[in-house]
Amino acid sequence: MLEAVDLYKEGISDLVLLTKPVKPIGYKKLETLGAGYPQYHETKLQIALKLGVDKEDIVILNERVSNTYSEAAVAKEFMHENNLQSLSVVTSKLHSKRASMIFNDVLKDGFEIYMRPSRYDPYDPYDPQIVRMYTKGIFYEYQKIIFYKLIKLFSKDYPKLR
Q1: Does residue 161 lie within any of the structural domains?
Q2: What per-residue confidence (pLDDT) applies to 91?
Q3: Whole-angstrom Cα distance, residue 150 to residue 144?
Q4: 30 φ, ψ (degrees, to nearest 5)
Q5: Hey, which residues does 64 pair with through a beta bridge?
Q6: Disulfide check for 7: which of 12, 16, 54, 108 has CB 3.0–4.6 Å away?
């Protein structure tokens, strides 16, 4: 969120788009008990507001998303509806390669995509101590890249996956 706010304050982005992840398992039970659960996009909204993003410049996309591909598809729909031509995608350093692949595939027709790994992300591939801490995440990210490429290669329904 810090990186997105910086892009906004630097005038690189006019809007901050937030997606709504699918509700976590057990959410309905918490609601029935009156406990609630702060949703991810609500937390991000509060952070953006407190850091100086104008409320009218924050857009929460309504459709719930479950993965990077669905985020890209929802963003594409929003961009078409609002006649936008470019998108800065803020993500973690570790996720930026796959996110770039997916967003560039989904938004390849007439959109400019700028991938922005967060400078606040502590991941450093040259620091053995950090790499050890991120080993599981690195493994999963490479696994997801391979899976994405295989789906793209072999699935006839690839453009429809969401």
Answers
A1: no
A2: 95
A3: 10
A4: -60, -40
A5: 20
A6: 12
